[in-house]
Amino acid sequence: MTSTATKKNTPPTPPKSALKRWIWLPVALILILGGVLAQIDLESIKEQLVQRVAKETGLEIEMAGMGFSFSHGIGFQCKKVKVSTPDGNHFSVERLHILTEWAPLLQGELKIKSIALEHPEARLTLPAIPSGLPVGPVTAQNEKTPPQTGLIDSATLESATKKIKNTPLSIEEFIVSDGKITLIQSGSEKQLPVNIEGLFVLKQHAGGQQDVLASDLKVQTGEIIFAGDGVVENFSADDAQIAFNLKSQTFSWAQIKPVLQFLQGSENEIETPLANIDIEKFSLQAKLPLTALTQVKRLQKELNAQVEFTSANALIKMDDQSYRVETLQGEGSLEQGILAHQFSGTAFGSAFNLKGQLPLNQKNPLLKTQINFEGLQAAQLPIPTNKGWHPSEGTLSGDLTFAITIIEEKPFAKLKAAYNFQAKNLKLQNKNSPPLFFDQLDGNGDIANRHLNYKIKGQSFNGNFHSEGAVNLPASGQPMLNNRVEFADLDLSQLAPSTPVKTGTLSGTLQLKGPLPEAENILTGNLKVDTTFKVADLKMSQGQLPLDIPQLSGSASLRQGKLKHDLNATLFGGKLSTQGQFNFQKQKDQTRVTVASKIKLDKINLNWVPQVQTSEWAPSSGTLTGDLQINGPVSFDGTISPALNLKGQLNGEQLVLGKDKGQIGSAKFDFKEGSLKLTQAQVELTQIKLGDKTFKKARGWLQRTPTNIDLKGGQLWPVNGLINLVADLKPESGNYRLKFKGEKLQVEEFLQPHLKGPLKFSGFLTGTLPPPNSGLPGIAKDLSGNIKIALNEGSLPELGVLENLLTVLNPTSVLETSKKGLSYDYLGGDFKILKGVVHSDNLEMKGPQIMLTAKGDANLVDDTVLAQVKAMPLQMLDKTLKAIPLLGQILTGGKKGGIIETYFKVDGKLSKPEFTLQPHKSLTEKPGNILNELLKLGQ
After folding, report:
1. Distance of alpha carbon 261 from alpha carbon 277, whole angstroms
2. Is 107 exposed, middle or buried (0-12, 13-18, 19+ CB in 10 A)?
3. Pairing between strand 645-657 and 501-515?
4. What's the pLDDT score for residue 766?
5. Whether the Cβ atoms of residue 96 and residue 77 lie closer than 8 Å to each other
6. By mean pLDDT, which of 204-208, 547-551, 571-575, 748-752 is the weakest?
C-alpha cells in the first residue's frame, strides 16, 4: 500500500493525447525525410558531381561510392575518393562529407554548404627550388637576367583564382581532419610527411567580396607542430591579401634538421657549425598580397611579418672546439622590405644583446647590426688555440656596430664598423711566446672603405701604454700600417719572463709606418720602424754572468733592411755607447747580417770575465777604454765571425790575469784599416809580470784572416835582452806554429834559482792548442819542432838532479860544489821535438869542475827519460894537468876523454831521473888509446 506522502509528491500524469503528439511528430518528420531522400538519385548526383568538378578544375576524379551522411548535418558521404592532377600529383580521401542546400537539390541544382575531409592523403612533388636572391655582384653579363620566379608561378595563380571566381560551386566551409601530405623532392625519392587539420570558412560580403577564414589550423611533421589561424581576404580579386598567425610547440635541432635537409634538396648533411639548439617558443605572423607569391622581389617588398622565438642549449662547433649559447631569445619584423631584428641571450659567460636591420629590397642589401656584451669570459671565445694569440683568462665588455653588404662577392670591401671594448685581467697566450698580461685594456675604433682607425690604452707589466693609428686594407697586396705606441715603466721581468731579467723598467715610443710584411720578413721589408727607449735599473744574468745596467737609452730606425742605432749605457762601473747600422739581406731561407758601427768604452771594469771565461789566464780585474769601428758580417751563434773587421784603439789598464797568474800595467790594441778578409792590430803591453817572471814590454802585429791569426814582428823585452817572435794560429783546427830567437838574455830570469848566466836560444815549435787546464801532457801531445840553446860562463846555484851524478863521481867534490854552486863555461845543445818526445845528440856542459855530454830522449807526455851521460870530473886533476901537460894527453888518450871518463844511464821519471853507473864501458874503451899515446912518446 502506497503512503499518502508519496502520492502527494508524485507529479501529475500528462494527458494521453499530448504524449501521442510528441511521439508521432519526430516519427512523421523522419518518414517525410525518408520519402524525400528516396526521391533522390544518388548515382545521378555522384556522376553530376564528378563531371562538374572535373570540368571546372581539370582534375580526374574517382569515387567508390556515395551515400547519405548525418555526421555534419544532412548531406552526402563519398567513400574512397581519388583525385589526380595533370602534373602527376595524387590526392585521396577515405571519406568525404558534403553538406548541401536541400531546396536547390530537390530542384536538381547542387549547392554545397560545407565539405569535410576525413583522412585525406596527398602526394605532391615539389618544383625545383627557385633561384631566389642573386649571388654575387651585378655585372654587364648578367644585367639582363630573366625575371625571378616566386613561390607560385604567376600563370598558375591566375588560372586558379579565375577558376574559383567563375566556378558556380559555392562552398561555405571546408573541414580537414587527420590530413596527410607527403612531399617529394623533384628528381629524388626523398619524402617528407606532413599532417594537416583545420577549418576553412568561405565568408561572403556585400558587393561580392569573398574571404577564406582558416581556424584551428594544425600542421605537423615528425614531432614539430605548428598551430594557428589565417585569412585570405577577397581571394578572387586582384588585391587579395593573405594573413596568418602560427605558433609552434617545443622542438630541437635534431628534429628540425631532417626538415631543413629535405628543403635543401641535398643528400648530404647540412653544413653548419650549429650542432644543437632547443626551440622553446616560436611564433610567426605575416600578411602579404596573394600575387606577391609569384615574384621574389615583390614578396620581399610587400611581405609584412613578425617572428618571435626563445631557445636554449645552442651548441656551436668550430675548429674541433664546442661553444655553448645558454639562452637566446629574439624577434624580427619585416616591413616594407626591411628586416629588423633584435636578439638577447647568454653566451661565453656573458649577457649580450644584438639589434639591427637588413633591407631586402635593395640591389646590394646592407646589414646593419649592433652587439652589446658585458662580462664576457675571454677564454670561451671561439678563437683557435693553435693559431697565433688567443685569450686564456679575463673578461670583456663593450659594443660592436657594423654594416656589411651580404650579397657581393667581396662584402668586406664595403664593411663599416665601430667598436668599443674594455678588458680586465686579460691573459693572451701563444705557443711560441711567453704569455702577455693586461690588468686593464680599453680600446675603440672604426673601419670604413678598407681603412681602420684605432686607439688602445692599458695597464700591463706594472706600467702603462697607449697606441693609436690606422691600417689601410687594400683589396690585394700588403696592409698599410701607420701606428704609434707610447709606453712607460714596463717591468721587464714580466715583459720577458723567459729571459733571465730580474729587475728593470722600460719606457719609450715605437712608430710603425708602411706595408706590413710577414713576420719572417719584418727586418728586410718596407715597413719603417722608429723607436726611442730608456731602460732603468736593469739587472739580469747571461749564463753565469750577472749584468747590472743602471741606465740604458737609445734610438733606432729601420728602413728597407737597414737598422740605424744610437745606444748609451752605464755598466760594469763604466760607460758604453754605440752608433751605426746593421744591414739585413734575405738570402733564400736565411737572413745575412752585416754591421758598420762605432763603439766607445770608458773604463769598463773586467772583474766579470772569469764568470764567462774558464781560462786561468782570463782577466780578473782591470779596466778597458776604447774607440772602435766594427765592420763585417755578424753571426748569432755566439761566435765572432773571422771576417769581422775592427778599426780603432782598445786600451787596458792594471790588468790582472786569473788568480794572480800575472799582471799587465797597460795593454794597447791599435786596430788598423783592414778589409772584410783582414783585421790587423798593433799590440803593445807594458809592465808585464807572469808569476815570478817580469817583462818590461811586449809588442807585435796581430793579423786575422778568415782562416788564420798571425803574429808578425813580435818582440818581448825581459829585464835583460830581447826575444823575437813570429807565430800563426788556425782557429778552426787549433793548429799553431811559433818561431823565436832570444839574445843577450839572463837565464836566471826564466829558471831561477836553477841556473845563472847569459842565455841565447832560437828555434820553432808546432802543435795544436789543447783544451783549457790540460797541463804539460796536453800541451806536449802534438808538440814538435827544433830548439837550440846556448849558455856561457854561468853557474848552477842549485844542483838539482845533478847532485846524484856528482855524488857517484866524487863525494868530496859534491860537498864542496853544493856550497858554492857548479860553474860552467858552456851549457847547451840542439833539441829535436816530435809529438812531445825531445831528442838531443849533443847536450853538453863544460866547466872547471866537470864536463858532461848527454844523448837520449825525454818524453814530455809520459814524464819519462832514457839517455846516456858521459861525465869527467876535472877539479881533482886541475893542478896536475897544469903542471904536467903531457900527463893530461896520456890520460885522455889524446882525445877529449881519458881514463877518468865515466858513463851513466839515465832513466825513470823525467821529473826525478835515476843515474846508473856503467863501469865496464868506461874501463874497456880507454886502454888502447892510452897505450897509443905512450908509444908516441918514444917517437
Report:
1. 16
2. exposed
3. unpaired
4. 94
5. yes
6. 204-208
